[in-house]
From TrEMBL, chains A, B:
Name used for this protein in its record: Bifunctional protein FolD
UniProt xrefs under InterPro entries: Aminoacid_DH-like_N_sf (IPR046346), NAD(P)-bd_dom_sf (IPR036291), THF_DH/CycHdrlase (IPR000672), THF_DH/CycHdrlase_cat_dom (IPR020630), THF_DH/CycHdrlase_CS (IPR020867), THF_DH/CycHdrlase_NAD-bd_dom (IPR020631)
Record domain Tetrahydrofolate dehydrogenase/cyclohydrolase NAD(P)-binding: where: 140-285
Lineage: Bacteria, Pseudomonadati, Pseudomonadota, Alphaproteobacteria, Sphingomonadales
Claim: Transferase is one of the keywords in the record: no
Reactions accelerated catalytically: (6R)-5,10-methylene-5,6,7,8-tetrahydrofolate + NADP(+) = (6R)-5,10-methenyltetrahydrofolate + NADPH; (6R)-5,10-methenyltetrahydrofolate + H2O = (6R)-10-formyltetrahydrofolate + H(+)
Amino acid sequence: MSAILIDGKARAARLRAEVALGVAEIVSVRGRAPGLAVVLVGEDPASSVYVRNKGVATREAGMVSVEHKLPADVGEDALLALVATLNADDAVDGILVQLPLPRHIDADKVIAALDPAKDVDGFHPVNAGRLMIGQPALVPCTPKGCLMLIEEALGDLSGREALVIGRSSIVGKPMAALLTAKSATVTVAHSRTRDLAGHVARAEIVVAAVGIPAMVQGEWLRPGACVIDVGINRVVGADGKGRLVGDVDFASALPRAGWITPVPGGVGPMTIACLLANTLQAARARA
Amino acid sequence: MSAILIDGKARAARLRAEVALGVAEIVSVRGRAPGLAVVLVGEDPASSVYVRNKGVATREAGMVSVEHKLPADVGEDALLALVATLNADDAVDGILVQLPLPRHIDADKVIAALDPAKDVDGFHPVNAGRLMIGQPALVPCTPKGCLMLIEEALGDLSGREALVIGRSSIVGKPMAALLTAKSATVTVAHSRTRDLAGHVARAEIVVAAVGIPAMVQGEWLRPGACVIDVGINRVVGADGKGRLVGDVDFASALPRAGWITPVPGGVGPMTIACLLANTLQAARARA
């Protein structure tokens, strides 16, 4: 037996098509397209690629994307002033400040300065809090996308045993909140967890978000589990070539899992698609 | 063998004494005592008792307590106006709106109107979000008190297996966030959980917050577990007399647990003591 591969690209394409329809609708009602402002500080190559890809995807969905590039040595005050301008700009429905920020800038302060209604990354404390207490919120893109993939595989999650490995504010914690809201029984494991293999063995849903290559062994899995691999780790193979691997050992997981996301092509495409969905959601809420 | 009874009254008395010292310090620095404003809408007998007890405890700690009693049919606008006045009142360090509110008032809206810096119940989305993402926050009183009791019993919680039964925004969810922040491996169970007994059997820490009398059976417990019973349920015994019982079946849990909170006298006294601690924390942050 071999796991069903969860095709994140196909699911993301469907979501992007849905977003494009929603965008067309909002254009017909409001007379202008939703606008996403992306703020990039410095020249980090990976961040630059992300920002470029987000811009392309945003425009493909029929939205307006404006990129604000600031030098790496920009002052915190200048960045906060830009955020204030974007908060006040009626043409801007969503604001994304690409992380990480340079060390001399307090990222928490910048995120807290965002209008929560425009916080399409879902990182503002108000959005984190609303998610936690079950109020409508802008939800971080990666866990939002993971949830869609899990529901596509399993349908109703009520009563399912779920394990989230990793407790970051960007993935692990919001993922746990989303699964709990869907009435799964959720355990959050992390670096201090003693019997990780035992927890994995009980889980019908495993979300791995730790950033350690092939850290979850396939032999640990409960047969038939739905495995969502958020990790994107660059490793160098025996041939000296770099390649991307997840947090789950794919080769040993494939024969044991029921469903599994490949890396790349699983969670990754969903993250950008969910950013578009969040921008549409923000625009609708403001309309 | 019999479990050690966790004496919530004694721990709460110690906390209240610490708060009183902190209050004296802030009075000497700032020239006035921290102030707590408690808002009570309507005449619910239980709420009236809570509010009175909170007032007494606040004054005993050397703080100023002001109670605002509004009729049950007060309009939402009038309540929001009072909140705005209290937000702006420099003598008020903490604001507590006693729940539940009458049905014609949107409680979420009232809580969201509080200045998060004065939200000593820790129910505002900003405080829930800060707790979730690991920033300094005003934390809901009951789970804050539970954590103190657990740490008193077990010390360092890193790597401990913890089970929180109940997923309310007031107890279960913040409790899980607090335990995760202390590096426990936390599972949140609830009404849809399939194998509750199995989860209880693995847990070194069990926090029961469901409001169902004696729902957790002592036989389920892992021997030596630390059991925190948040439930306060009024039941009528065979003798026709009412008495208070927790969510854990105390008689069967006592010989099996390592530590257990009695009901009453366990978690309850900690809740008010933590309200005082939160008021002091808010006053210090504003000073």
